[in-house]
Design brief:
- It is a single chain.
- This protein is mostly beta strands.
- It has five helices and 24 strands.
- It has two domains: 303 residues, Outer membrane protein transport protein (OMPP1/FadL/TodX) (Porin), CATH 2.40.160.60; 72 residues, Alpha-Beta Plaits (2-Layer Sandwich).
- It is 10% helix and 44% strand.
- A 14-stranded antiparallel beta barrel has the order 1-2-3-6-7-8-9-12-13-14-15-16-17-18. A four-stranded antiparallel sheet has the order 22-23-21-24.
Length: 459
């Protein structure tokens, strides 16, 4: 049994034999084939039709340019099993560097199996040894124009089979663009020099992908298609569909067809997936059914940081009622008029101060009753300020952000989500009468890794 495992390990590492396409390991004399093990249970549920589908940190593997649409930090991890003993682990983190500074990412992948018992040609034990592959990937993505993103990855690769070790480096280049709701993506992966392994050199498993995707029915349905050109295997076409019956659940199905091979090729067939998204948490599962070889199970987890580790001690300052300034006092309009002359007086009395009014009918003397005050001048409306959390590609994304804010203790009863043509969905958390209150709320959100800004509210 241990000899069989050794053969499997050497097959995986040195590409000396055929491999199932669903393990994403190609055929041919190449090294670093574990780099093709597809990352993400949500992606696997779509049969890998993900070159144009933004899926958080996992996008680093599929197309690094898709990370540019992220607005908040996210950590993701995946565990996959194949043939019982073979295990694949992946963990990644991506963080926006600023409104216009792009998004940085980092990940580690680890493909391994249990320790093996070594023997010589006479079946004498020679000691235990390990078999594993590992890669460290650093990436960067940013917008270069409206709806257009570019991204790149750099990889450090290490493969170990007992005392034999190979090291190398590779680069991924990706681009994506969204026009009229349709996203196009393209990526070239694993560009780099041959890896020296033992006494030989082996090329990297380079490939090129093209993809297209589009949401329908208010983002409840997503359709995607990819075409892949592997360097060491047949080309393949992939189709995927995702249905979201509500804001929490996602059902996925995909189909992959390997060209140039027969219908029994283990890379051809269906895949199925299920996802749950609640607040900042994503949990996804996918299974690629047995096609005469072995099932592959993937489980991935994602957490979008919004301050769960640093929950604010107090709730944001509540809205204060507007303070109405007192109406300005209107000074009375007065004139000085002489009093009626008194025949018996020796001298004229001082003049009386009376309010000027119209004379009564039949008399020419003014009355001393108070005149009505003129109407007050209209008061200018005070400015109101909105705390805006940016634009989102879908209404579901904006509503998910609101749920995350509610979990963190923020009041969302006055929040609004509105569609802005050409920019997506605009999320305004609150409308306040004080610029100071709006700035304080924005500062508390920024401290939790949100990217808010304050605007004068439209009337």
């Amino acid at each position: 049994m241990r000899r069989l495992q050794l053969v499997v390990a050497m097959t995986v590492l040195l590409s000396s034999g055929a491999r199932p396409g669903y393990a994403d390991l190609a055929v041919g004399g190449s090294a670093g084939d574990f780099l093709g093990f597809e990352v993400g249970a949500s992606s696997a549920g779509l049969a890998g039709a993900n070159t144009s589908v933004a899926s958080g940190t996992i996008s680093q593997y599929w197309n690094p340019s898709l990370l540019a649409v992220m607005t908040r930090p996210q950590a993701s991890m995946m565990h996959a099993t194949w043939l019982g003993d073979l295990q694949y682990e992946w963990i990644g983190y991506a963080r926006p560097l600023g409104t216009t500074a792009g998004v940085a990412s980092a990940s580690v992948s680890y493909f391994h199996m249990p320790t093996l018992n070594g023997v010589d040609q006479f079946d004498n034990p020679t000691g235990d040894f390990r078999v594993y592959d590992m890669a460290l990937t650093l990436g960067y993505a940013r917008h270069i124009a409206k709806g257009i993103q570019l991204g790149a990855n750099g990889k450090l690769i290490r493969q170990t089979l007992a005392s034999v070790t190979g090291t190398g480096a590779a680069v991924d280049l990706g681009a994506s663009a969204t026009f009229v709701g349709t996203t196009l993506g393209a990526v070239v992966q694993n560009l780099g020099p041959d890896i020296k392994f033992g006494s030989g050199s082996y090329p990297l498993p380079g490939l090129t992908r093209f993809g297209v995707s589009r949401p329908f029915y208010h983002d409840r349905v997503l359709l995607a298609a990819d075409y892949t050109f592997p360097r060491t295997y047949y080309n393949d076409v992939r189709l995927g569909a995702e249905v979201r019956p509500n804001s929490i659940l996602a059902l996925r199905v995909g189909y992959r067809r390997i060209g140039g091979s027969g219908p029994d090729d283990p890379g051809t067939g269906l895949s199925f997936g299920l996802g749950a998204h609640y607040g900042p948490i994503n949990l996804d599962y996918a299974m690629t059914p047995d096609n005469g070889f072995a099932d592959i199970h993937r489980l991935s987890f994602g957490y979008t940081f919004g301050g769960a580790e640093a929950k604010p001690e107090s709730k944001p300052e509540p809205k204060k009622p507007p303070v109405t300034p007192p109406a300005p006092k209107q000074p009375p309009v007065i004139v000085t008029a002489p009093a009626a002359p008194d025949a018996g007086a020796k001298s004229s009395p001082p003049p009386k101060t009376v309010v000027a009014t119209a004379p009564s009918a039949g008399t020419s003397e003014p009355k001393t009753s108070a005149a009505p005050a003129p109407p007050p001048a209209p008061k200018p409306m005070p400015n109101q300020y909105e705390v805006v959390l940016g634009n989102y590609q879908s209404e579901a994304s904006a509503q998910s952000e609101l749920k995350a804010l509610q979990i963190l203790g923020f009041s969302v009863k006055n929040a609004t989500v509105a569609f802005v043509p050409g920019a997506g969905y605009r999320l305004a958390l609150a409308r306040l009468n004080s610029r100071k209150s709006a700035d304080e709320l924005a500062a508390s959100l920024a401290a939790l890794s949100f990217t808010p800004h304050v605007e004068i509210a439209r009337r």
